[in-house]
Amino acid sequence: EFMVQKLGIEEDKVVELNQLLYRKYGTSMAGLKAIGYEFDNDEYHSYVHGRLPYENLKPDPVLKNLLLSLPFRKLVFSNGDDVHVMKALKRLGIEDCFERIISFETLNPKTNEAEVSCVTGHLSESPVICKPTEIAFEKAFGIAQLNPHKTLFFDDSIRNIQTGKVMGLHTVLVGKSRKVDGSDYALEGIHNMKEALPELWLESNSNNEKSKRISYAAQLSIATSVEA
């Protein structure tokens, strides 16, 4: 609808174009910017995410308890904008479970966008930074001050998981029962986290081999994916 109503793209072409842009650039928005369309980022997010059925999301006390019981830093890494991410987290009842959110605005601050436009005078090949690009992961690591080799990364996108693995993260593919190339673990559902990774819940002050088994997970990063 945004592509037709706001950008004037022919209706019979938007579905195919949308899919092509999403596959190539990580998000449709990034793709539209990359091929030369200019529009306000906030307007796009408000228009597209404003039509999402947030009421379908219900409080998830099981997930909340799992997250709160983990003795590690927890972060959200999303291609979505701040408003969208917070709406989703609040609907699930887990907005207080994370140290911080790394969102669209975090990776694409308005000041940087304006500076790039003034200096170059044209759009770069990837004017929007988002997963699954390596630069998005690099920026997230720097912003969060985390070591990817000591971070566990959850995502439901195979492409995001594969880039995360290349960048040094320990990876968990959510929503699949079988691992794929690039995933260290596969969880059919996020509620299976404790059964699949019981070592994460070992008491931090124990003197057994726990420290060896979770040395890779000194920090925990949990990501959300947004197809927009």
Automatic annotation (TrEMBL):
The keyword Transit peptide does not apply. One of its GO terms (molecular function) is hydrolase activity. It comes from the Eukaryota. Keywords: Hydrolase. InterPro entries: HAD-SF_hydro_IA (IPR006439), Pyr-5-nucltdase (IPR010237). It comes from Arabidopsis suecica. This is HAD hydrolase subfamily IA. NCBIfam families: HAD-SF-IA-v3, Pyr-5-nucltdase.
